[in-house]
Task: structure prediction
Amino acid sequence: MPVCEPGRTTLTRDEIGTRYGLRAARLLVAPNDAKDLAQFHALRDALKVEQTSVGRFETPNLGLARQTKIREALEALSAASGSFTHAFGPKGEVDPVKHRIGMAAGWGGNPDRDAS
Result:
């Protein structure tokens, strides 16, 4: 979910559906404008990430050959699908098969309403 206003954002396992999540911030700046550059630095320096405990990053070990075979199949499906419509977005608005294909083709997709 895009956040366009200042404030605190909390990612929860229940909301995301997994214990792994990502929050990205994009700040635009006019590099030749000293005032804008100063504001950019202040905003960038104000960004914080907090979590209650460190946790551990755990992934299944598929083996390189199996992982490569699965990725190649998903990339072939991506090339044939023609679009990433319904591949990214909130739970309930995403087609799980298209999501899996989109994730293999390249991470960072936006929900349809934000990408079109």
